[in-house]
Design goal:
By secondary structure, this protein is mainly β. It is 5% helix and 39% strand.
Length: 506
């Protein structure tokens, strides 16, 4: 839906006097220890959990007052949910949020009209293979005082998933406010690899936010009365697990880091200040066949990396995790004599290669950005279709398809499909002007294989600007209606999300 209309109602957050913006570079770096989210404890029956969404006040830096945000069980990111592959769990997601939002709602967005309650929520476990009724469908939101219990069979390989709000029209605001956390699935095969565990395995959620000098969370506003939506939200402060510029004290040994980009819009280009390399052992949906050494890498919103860092040669030293010019966090390696040497497994887990010939259908789907006739607003579309138009993607259960994302825009869009995992085939540049005029494809560059760190199973893929990105998907698990969307949350909230339906075999 175009963001237009003279009768648009201003957000309740508009018009409030703001404190001056915070320049995070004026804060002293590396004075706060990195928070480690606790592992959630079962509630009542074994394998049943209760996570409550509520307003919290948390210090994001030693020298700032507490910040109002939203979290699960009193913290943001929320507790880590640990599960075993093949063992079902249930989670009651309880909404105990206040009745009014504190971030700028745009009532012109589809699904966020004035007749909807300002505060509503529904939780999606990103990357989980679940029945449709347990997936956190964007229109299945519920209001404060209500709860919803979802069941997760965990019939999938071990990996790092993450849970987050998925409410139609205000998803970007609820996640920005702090409604997200990790879920880790494990199994006996991974246990036998003897990877770092316990205090040597650490979840790292990286994300950017803006703050005012009084410590309050500041979400960007378009400045247009009644139409506060912005196409992207970039913050000046980089947080890790809820802190700006944290430090982590480590021993001179091997550590495992479960890395998530929890930003609304920002891509991170990560490296270490001393040139130390990363050892990648997994992607969004599980382990790689073998470890991969990386000097640097790009992680898009919603992507996860499973990394090892070997500090055994750096006793007494410090190193900074950076994203280009941004300092993210500091590692402080202790002076402990004789660092523990832990061998990195030479092989990890076989990854079945889906043959391209197995595909029974190829779907070519353009990614579009369109301005309103007066040019004062924009909407994003998948396949030229709005959310409430008829479902056009209807794969059959246990079949393989190729989805081609024809990106005509200036952005790289991280595209996420619910329910399934997939493999990236390739990317290739094309003549977008010819495509606009005739819908014909003329390639302008060679076929590019996925980056080495994109190998293995994925559930989120970067569809680069002016390129066609192809993925190979096996639709397995359950039949029913799911969604797929851009994981730039401002895009997702403005029509860059579509339902799809997995059909039963005839």
């Amino acid at each position: 839906m175009f963001l237009a209309g003279a009768a648009a109602v201003a957000s309740r957050a508009e018009g409030q006097k703001k404190s001056p913006a915070l320049d995070p570079n004026r804060l002293q770096k590396f004075v706060d220890p990195l928070p480690i989210p606790p592992v959630a404890k079962s509630f009542g029956a074994r394998n049943h959990y209760r996570l409550t969404m509520s307003e919290i006040h948390a210090k994001v830096h030693r020298d700032l007052p507490p910040t109002r945000m939203w979290g699960f069980n009193g913290i943001s990111p929320g507790p880590v949910i640990e599960a075993r592959s093949g063992e079902s769990i249930s989670i009651e997601w309880a909404n105990r949020l206040p009745s009014q939002h504190f971030l700028p709602i745009d009532y012109n967005l589809h699904g966020s009209e004035k007749d909807k309650p300002d505060v509503r929520a529904v939780v999606h476990v990103h990357g989980a293979k679940t029945r449709p009724e347990d997936d956190g469908y964007p229109e299945d939101w519920y209001v404060p005082g209500k709860s919803r219990t979802y069941h997760y069979p965990n019939n999938q390989e071990p990996t790092a998933l993450w849970y987050h709000d998925h409410t139609m029209g205000i998803n970007r605001l609820n996640v920005y406010a702090g409604l997200f956390g990790f879920m880790l699935i494990r199994d006996a095969y991974e246990d036998a690899l003897d990877l770092p565990k316990g205090r040597y395995e650490i979840p790292l959620a990286l994300y950017d936010r803006s703050f005012s000098q009084d410590g309050s969370l500041d979400y960007p506003d378009s400045g247009m009365p009644g139409m506060p939506w912005v196409p992207e939200a970039f913050g000046e402060a980089m947080l890790v697990n809820g802190k700006i510029f944290p430090f982590l004290e480590v021993e001179p040994r091997l550590y495992r880091f479960r890395l998530l980009n929890g930003s609304n819009s920002r891509f991170f280009h990560l490296s270490l200040s001393n040139g130390q390399t990363f050892i990648q052992i997994g992607t969004d949906q599980g382990l790689l066949p073998a470890p991969l050494t990386l000097d640097n890498f790009v992680i898009a919103p919603a992507e996860r990396f499973d990394l090892l860092l070997d500090f055994s040669k750096y006793a007494g030293q410090r190193m900074v995790l950076r994203s280009d010019a941004f300092s993210i966090m500091e590692f402080r390696v202790s002076n402990q004599a004789g660092g523990v040497s832990v061998a990195v497994p030479a092989t990890l887990r076989a990854v079945e290669k889906i043959p391209e010939a197995a595909a029974v259908e190829t779907r070519r789907i353009p990614l579009l950005e369109m301005k309103s006739p007066n040019g004062d607003s924009m909407t994003m579309l998948l396949g030229g279709m709005h959310w409430d138009m008829p479902v056009t993607e209807k794969p059959v259960i246990d079949t393989v398809e190729i989805w081609e994302f024809v990106n005509t825009t200036e952005d790289s869009h991280p595209i996420h499909l619910h329910l399934v995992r997939f493999q990236i085939l390739d990317r290739r540049s094309f003549d977008e002007l010819l495509y606009f005029r005739t819908r014909q494809i003329r390639y302008t560059g060679p076929v590019l294989p996925p980056d080495p760190y994109e190998a293995g199973w994925k559930d989120t893929v970067r569809a680069h600007s002016k390129m066609i990105t192809r993925i190979l998907v096996r639709f397995e698990g359950y039949t029913g209606r799911y969604v797929w969307h851009c994981h730039l949350l401002e895009h997702e909230d403005n029509e860059m999300m579509r339902p799809y339906e997995v059909l039963a075999k005839r």
